[in-house]
Amino acid sequence: MNFVTCSYKNEEFVGIENSGYITAVNDILAAAEEKNICSMLELIDAFSLDSGLYTRLERTDLSRFNSLSPREVQLKAPIPYPRRNIFCLGKNYAAHANEVQATKLSGSGIPTSPVYFTKTAMPALEHGGEIRFYASATQQVDYEAELAVIIGKQGINIRPEDAKEYIFGYTILNDVSARDLQVKHEQWFKGKNLDTFCPMGPVIVYKNDIPFPAQLDITCHVNGILRQNDNTKSFIFDLPYIISDLSKGLTLYPGDIISTGTPAGVGAGAKPPRFLNDGDKVECTIEKIGTLTNIVKVIY
Ligand code: MG
Q1: Residue 203 Cα, ligand 1 centroid: separation in angstroms?
Q2: Residue 281 CB contacts under 8 Å (≥ 6 apart), including other chains
Q3: Cys staple from 160: which of 18, 34, 116, 240, with CB 3.0 to 4.6 Å?
């Protein structure tokens, strides 16, 4: 089941996407005289409290309800305003760790423990939205296609063998990065956190639809040219390890997002480096989830 956040006539709602058409979750809940859900975070909370909700939604005959075409709604990021920063992994594919070792971005090769940093989303950028940045702020903007995991249940000190039950679903995240700022400021925070630098979506795929641990093809195309091409089975740290390690002494909450790192092929790793320019079209694709497309807009 694919979940989306959309707005229709300026009202935001959570929908189930099926073959491109969108059914409002609240239409289904209203017909069953159940409580309204106003956001994706509320839906994830409701799933964590009510183990039967998924089954009731899954068994619903969607043809009984009005559906909206993508042209009628404005798609938002699935979680436009996460409750806290997105947890991100740097260097979780060996080939990517090697390609950035030659740059000034990072020098220590293959990590022996996950490299964590965080990313803000105020808001996360929707599929189709513009990655807008000021030429006065950065000249070296790069893409990073990543699988993002949405946490569905509160937990601390989670065992690797229990990790699956703490997942709500999966989406695509483009960890857009200003390489010059990453190098200049040493710590990555600023270079990862300019406005619009967190495209996410277009959907959250519920965990039942993706075998665990996820082994999914992941690509990034810029203007139709393949730049990144790998599979999440190449992770240095797999999902059970990441969820277990991150949750050691750190409570994870429903709605938390973990972005699992990017494969080789980023612009900074090319010789010579090739960064994003005004008008570029960036398409991050993950098998079984879809394609997250954004256009670059440089403000001069
Ligand atoms: Mg990244």
Answers
A1: 19
A2: 221, 222, 223, 224, 293, 294, 295, 296
A3: 240
Render 254-273 in DSSP notation, one character per residue: TT-EEE----S--GGGSSS-
Whether omega for the bond prior to residue 211 falls within 30 degrees of 0, making it cis, is no
From the CA of 263, how far away is ligand 1's center (Å)? Answer: 9
Phi and psi at residue 168, to the nearest 5°: -90, -50
How far is the centre of ligand 1, averaged over its atoms, from the C-alpha of 148 (Å)? 10
Q: Which two tokens stand for residue 86?
A: 């997105």
> Could you tell me the distance, in angstroms and rounded to a whole number, from the CA of residue 143 to the centre of ligand 1?
9
pTM of the predicted protein model: 0.97
Categorize the per-residue pLDDT at 241 as very low, low, confident or very high, splitting at 50, 70 and 90: very high
Neighbours of 11 (CB within 10 A): 9
Tens of pLDDT, residue by residue over 128-150, are 999 999 999 999 999 999 999 99
As a whole number of angstroms, the distance between CA 185 and CA 203 comes to: 33
Dihedral angle, C-alpha 60, 65, 69, 70, nearest 10 °: -50
Whole-number Å distance between alpha carbons of 243 and 221: 29
Token pair belonging to 143: 């893409």
Tokens 């010579």, residue? 272
Whether the pLDDT of residue 103 is over 90: the answer is no
DSSP conformational letter for 250: S
